[in-house]
Amino acid sequence: MIPAEFEYVAPSTVEEAVQALDRAGDDAKVLAGGQSLLPVLRMRMADPGLVVDLGGIPEARGVREDGDTLVIGAMTSHHEVMRSELVRGHAELVALTTRTVADPQVRHRGTFGGSLAHADPAGDLLAPALAMDAEMVVAGPSGRRTVPAAEFFVDYFTTTLESNEVLVEVRIPKYTGWRAHYEKFNRVAQAWSVVGVAATVLVRDGVVARARVGLTNMGATPVRAHGVEQALVGSPPTEEAVRRAAAHATEGTQAGSDASAEADYREHLAEVLTGRALATAASG
Ligand code: FAD
């Protein structure tokens, strides 16, 4: 199908983008990589009068360091994220998860910020963002605010972003030296997760000193598996310790049923995939 007619602007600064969105009220949409928005427009599930393309805003693109923090511009493509030495060195979980997103075509167009702003519960990058305590830097008419990932994702396809706000960058504390793995179950190669588990651990002297685990598609928003983390920390990452920790995987989840899987199968997957993610991460 063909989208309904809309006006198109391509601002060169974040402030110009915010002004354009603010002027349009609720009648505008931000365009990032377009991998999710364009199908929505073509199916006429949305028909905004204005599309604000962030593609020409240099500030929103690229990966940099800011002291102990890694900063990923919202408009950085999945391809750039997974190839970035900085991401691989300080947020390996993000790089490994991004590798599982879709196919090379989608990864060249789709963006890190677009995935987070879209907030598809089956989207793979939400779980690592949550598990790693990422912070979203959001620009609006009255300036910028920082939103922790734990508060950013509100519901299915819903974040705290207002219609006149733009996600500018994502700030992630550095996880240098941590080991990581993203374990994803999907029915078709290169598709979204039926369930996914993002795990990163810091092993010191053969013992798990710290652990972070996030679950994909186990509810309307990504879920932080605090019970798993607490159960594993302080133990050597043996098969038995990993199995005991993974038994906590479904705590706080609200898995839904859909054409891909029933809720109880998702719960089974969450436990199995958590065990695999932890074992693989811990073994380095
Ligand atoms: P867009 O499509 O441009 O925007 C998506 C939404 O977010 C829109 O509502 C837009 O207004 C809003 N938005 C985007 N950027 C911002 C911003 N900076 N500030 C405010 N609002 C913003 N994803 C996965 O995680 N795993 C997969 O396996 C996977 N498989 C895919 C397979 C296919 C065939 C396709 C087409 C997509 C797939 N995706 C998958 C989705 C892909 O990762 C998209 O890149 C992502 O969903 C949206 O990113 P985008 O940059 O294309 O955003």
Automatic annotation (TrEMBL):
What InterPro entries does its record include? CO_DH_flav_C, CO_DH_flav_C_dom_sf, Diverse_Substr_Oxidored, FAD-bd_PCMH, FAD-bd_PCMH-like_sf, FAD-bd_PCMH_sub1, FAD-bd_PCMH_sub2, Mopterin_DH_FAD-bd
Q: Name one Pfam family in it.
A: CO_deh_flav_C
Going by the UniProt record, its keywords in alphabetical order are:
FAD, Flavoprotein, Oxidoreductase
PROSITE patterns, A to Z: FAD_PCMH
Residue ranges occupied by any FAD-binding PCMH-type domain in the UniProt entry: 1-177
Q: Does the keyword Cytoplasm apply?
A: no
Oxidoreductase among the record's keywords? yes
SMART domains, alphabetized: CO_deh_flav_C
Molecular function as annotated in GO: FAD binding; oxidoreductase activity
- Which portions of the sequence form the region Disordered? 234-261
PANTHER family in alphabetical order? XANTHINE DEHYDROGENASE SUBUNIT C-RELATED (PTHR42659:SF2)
What is the protein's given name?
Answer: Carbon monoxide dehydrogenase
Give the lineage.
Bacteria, Bacillati, Actinomycetota, Actinomycetes, Actinopolysporales
